[in-house]
Amino acid sequence: MKVLISGGSGFLGSAFSQELIERYRTQGKEVMITWLTRDSNKAHPDDINMMTYDELKKSDMSFDVIMNLAGAGIADARWSDERKEQLIASRIKPTQSILSFIERTATKPKLLVSGSAIGWYGTQGDKPLTEHSSFETDFAHRLCEEWESLALKATDYDVPVAIVRTGVVIHPEGGMVAKLLLPFKFGVGGQLGDGQQIMSWISRDDWVGAVIFIIEQYLFSQFGHKQRVSNNDNVIETRSDTPAFVYNLTAPNPVSNHTFTKTLGSWLHRPTLFTLPEFLLKLMFGEMSTLLIDGQKVLPQALSDAGYAFKHVTLKQALEDQK
């Protein structure tokens, strides 16, 4: 299998690459992974190939799967107008480069896996949300929608698309947990606001496992036939007959911020006595505070229907098993 990944060196792309290589080599299968990069001198593992976006423009290579994960972290900085433009551009430009490659290459990839986030659904409190659910319009939705809509144009070139809407990814090496480790270890961790907002999470191991599951279904189980891969609730309508689907990459048991706080504190053997009130979060983070204050209860209906078996169904499992 040959896989091209934008954002391959990131928190998710690097873990996916490592797991795919190890799993396939153990099975005696060949796998070649290439990371798209803007810096040809960027450090990378010896078993990963590197390709710049300029090289992609001229490349005649073929890939079985393209993964489109590149994008600046949505919670890494306050949402100024300039930051919003950066968040959009960091997703749109790599996607445009990939689409240009798909359009001109003679041998089309069998699948495009394109990143997104559960922010697509907007703020909807504790209402259960599946792939069939509608959305509320806010900046997070508009960002995800623009990214998804562009990626879906790959179906114009007969390339199936799987959109993966990712929740809060749990692993000590990165994401939210890594940012919280220091304050929690010092005993100053605590809940946000009233703590009742729902957090839809997934362990990094399950994120990687779910993406590999989706890819293998497409490549090895004739996943292009709608009746074999999906209930109709996660089918995305496109301008062509080429299939496109969406998957919520979340664990089946979302938790409240209060539960998350207590579970993380227990795992670290630290008290969680502090509370950051809502007004202070809004003052500190502005519009971006919606990510902390407003919950989303997003469920992995399509993955469950397709038969994916989660390794970590509780937050406690995810924290304890992933070292």
From TrEMBL:
Identification of the protein by name: Epimerase
Alphabetical list of SUPFAM superfamilies matching this protein: NAD(P)-binding Rossmann-fold domains (SSF51735)
InterPro entries assigned to the protein according to its UniProt record, in alphabetical order: DUF1731, Epimerase_deHydtase, NAD(P)-bd_dom_sf, SDR39U1
Membership in a protein family: Belongs to the NAD(P)-dependent epimerase/dehydratase family. SDR39U1 subfamily.
Pfam families per the UniProt record, alphabetical: DUF1731, Epimerase
Stretches assigned to the NAD-dependent epimerase/dehydratase domain: 3-217
Domain (DUF1731) ranges: 276-321
